[in-house]
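pinging the channel bc i need a second pair of eyes. not urgent but kinda urgent?? the chain im working w is below, pasted from the shared doc
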Amino acid sequence: MTMTASMAPTVTDYEASADLATLVVRTAQDDEVKLAAEQIRLACKCAHCTRARIDGRFPERFPGIAITGIGDLGYGLNIWFSDGHNRGIYPKIYLLSLAGH
């Protein structure tokens, strides 16, 4: 009996699009995943955003939001947004799951 293990995609590169509206993520499996800045901002799980959700203060949309910076922490990306939010740390596997991988 032969068993094969499925390998989870590994993020090898990332960048914000020229218009800052999209995060482009590339994997070792040669996939290119594109995530809208608004989708990423809405998916933030930092303590501040989690509290805002609990209190009913978290917006339903972030129209026109842009990615203004990206910091690589190894296991994840710290992404800064044009609304001033810079607390979100997105594990790379979480970003891929947002894209359905």
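so The mean pLDDT is 93. and The two ends are 28 Å apart (CA to CA). — does that match what u expected or am i reading it wrong
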